[in-house]
Each structure stands twice: as structure tokens, then as C-alpha cells.
Input
Amino acid sequence: MPQAILEVKNLTTFYKTRMNEKVCSVDNVSFNLEDGKSLGIAGESGCGKSTLAMSVMGYYFPPLFYESGSIIVDGKDITSLEADVIRQTVLGTDIAYIPQAAMNALNPTRKIICFIEDVLRAHKIDLSKKDIYDLARERFSVLNLPEKVLNQYAVELSGGMKQRTVIAISTILKPKVLIADEPSSALDVSSQKIVIKLLRSLMEKGFIRAMVFITHELPLLYNVTDDIMVMYAGEIVERGTAKEMVFDPIMPYSKGLMNSIIVPEEGTRGHVLQAIPGAPPNLKLKHKGCRFLERCRYKDECNDLTPENKSAGPGRTFKCAVPEEKLRQLYKADESAGLKKPSEAV
Output
């Protein structure tokens, strides 16, 4: 079997409010990422995607706190390491993170080469300024970024160029795992395409060994990742290959996500466009049973039973109290009910 380069086991992290209330945004999450693979994470705003990304780095600072679980990168459990050790030996080398709004992460008063110098010195890599410049120039050239960018300020770069520069800086030390948190959300379609090609080339050229890609855009994940994992209210509710998750979701929330968007791919054009009613649960409260229950149109079928993770084939899991066969029967009945197509329902 392929070796897992990243193993997350029963990870639970939470935020603490000013009123000392606990908000559990990542609750008992487990997943593996194989060497050479890319994993997409999808879900609505507030479901815990970005918190999971930050938690997986093992580097916590208030108001985010670690509670339990383990994070194993290439055989090394980083949850047992001190914060300073993680910052100097894990971040940037084992795991690199591209945050949301990465284009705003560059200090406008410093040249791009200065950020690369900071990264190398933070990891105690002793190189002369000339050697650092030569390394940066070579790396930027491989990633199709012009050398002149190194001597420019962030304000001189376009949005797409800033994003590509942040990606290049984040991967300068060839991290084993790259976590990209919505790296294309603020870009136009042409710039998105360039960024996606850059991320792919990073894996092809060996600058990163595996990638976690977070976005709201499920069709984008279909074209970028090998597997897709759906998150809801701090939990993982389904995982499968990109094709399975886009064209054949099992869990009602995953099905609702796909029914709430229009995509041009063959096989989805006849799907009914529907919104998911209601709102996510309050994560300040402890929840028993299914967290999606109040929003689920099939809640009468499970009688509020506690959902369990079920297997639906190799690498395919979903969390629901209703058996897979029954869910597929319900979906088939809906499709046979004569509902209008998206184009007719507008």
C-alpha cells in the first residue's frame, strides 16, 4: 500500500472566546494523505476547513488551542514538539501553509528577496546574500517567475503575481506537505488557471510531495485533487475520489453541496439546483447525534440515531445513520419526482 506522508488521528482543537467559552471547530478528525497525492477539503463557510489547516501544522497560538489527537508527518509526531521547535524545524520544511488572503501577507515596504532571506535565516540556514539570491533566482525561474520580481515590492505586483510569489516563498525549502487555503478565491479565471498550473508543477518537479487544497469550489477540486473530503460543523462527513464526490456523493450534506451549484461537466447538467435550508449548529454547544439533522430532508429516516463512519468501498467513507442503500433509494426517488432542471427552475 502507498505510504501516508501525513496522518491525522482524532485531532480536536478549539477556540476560546473572551467570555472563556469553548468553540470546538475541529472535533475528533482523522485522515491520511498518501505520498504523491493531493487532497481537497470542501464545505461551507464556518465548517472548520481553515481551522483544520492551521491545526494540522501543530503550531497553536491564542485563541486557537490544541486539545487532543496526533499529527504525524513522514513518521514524526509533531504534536509532542515545543512551539519553537515546530517553528524552526517543521514549518516550511515538513509542512508549508498558504493562508487565505495570501496576497496581503507581503509587507509592502520590503522587497521580495527579503522574505526569502527571512525564511532561510529562521531555519538557521547560513548562506551569503549572493547565495540566497542565486537560490531564489533559480527557484523562481523553474516556477516561471521572472527574476525581476525578487527586487520588486509587493505593491508593484498584480494580484496573480503576488499569489504566485507567496507560493514560491512558502515552498522555497521544499516542504513535504503544502496546505493551500483557498489560493485562487480572489483571482480572476485566467489567474486561477496559472496558480493551479503552478501548484501542479510543484508536485511534478518534486518541490512538494503532497498537497492539501481547500476551497469552496467543488468543480475546481475535481480538476486539481485526487481525493475530496467534505467537512461539516467541525467533522469529516465524507471522503472519496474526486470523481466519486462530484458525481456520486452519498452523505446528504455532500449531496446538498453538489445540488447547490451548477457545473458544466457531463453528467451533472440535469441535476436540480437546490439550496441547503437552515444554518449550521452552534459549535459552542456539545452535540449528540447528527449535526446535520435539522437541515437534512431525510431526517425522518434515521430517527435521530448517532451517525457512524461507514465504508462504501476502498478509500470511500461517509458519516450517516442511514444505510448507503437506503440513501441511494431516496435520491433515486427524488430524481424520479419530475423536478425541474436548473435552467427551467430559474
